[in-house]
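Hi Prof. W.,

I finally got the Amidohydrolase family protein prediction working! I wasn't sure whether to trim anything, so I left the full sequence exactly as given:
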Amino acid sequence: MLIDINAYTGHWPFKQLHGNTCDGLLERMKEYGTDLSVITNLHGVFYKNTQSANDELYREVRSKRAFNDRFLPFGIINPIYAGWKDDFNTCVKDYGMKGIRVFPNYHDYTIDDPNLVELVKMARDADVAVALTMRVVDSRQRSWMDLSTEWPMKDYLPLLRAVPDAKFMLLNLGTNMALSDEDVKTIKDGNVLIDTSGRYITHFANYVKRFGKEKFAFGTHFPVLDYYSGLLRIESLRKEEANEEDRELFRHLNVKRFLKL
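And this is what came out:
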């Protein structure tokens, strides 16, 4: 079995994407043997009202039975936008989403913003995951209208420390991974799942050794990135780096435990 924990539908305003619908993503999943994908609507990064994007995604997933069986939608919540608590309840209670995503650098608030901390505590109490995205697109190829800076991993860790019993997904590690011993301990001690899509996961075996094999799961960041690299990092591990049981953890077992699938 194979589960992708980081995929999208929707458009990115500064880059043409292909396969960025449920139909397009499902075709790619069939090509590579992926059984289930966690998906988010990219429009929510840019809509002032992120809930409009969550509603779009929910309607699209509900439009075909095949989508219901193959997709796990995550909503995007902006905790400094009016009505965000209602948005959270709609996503979790009405739509049954098992996770939310936040984009503080795009929505212009700090990682220690009290509203964000409150949101994470609400997610913890509802037993849903909070996904933090280290990078959406490479800033070296950015539009002048896009973000000029990227946050390194360490900039997100104060939120993990503020709510240590929440569930966090750290996605697309495409930024600086310089971490102190305390930072590494925060990740190892927390209920954290890291996907395999990011550029800094090139030497995957080193990260498994550093953080633990239970901390990683297959992710593509598709359609922003190519579909195969995240899977290749798992399948290319040498025998002395990972056995078949370890690969099964990365392919599906870790995320099934994490999201209680």
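The first helix runs from residue 22 to 32. Does that look reasonable to you?

Thanks,
D.
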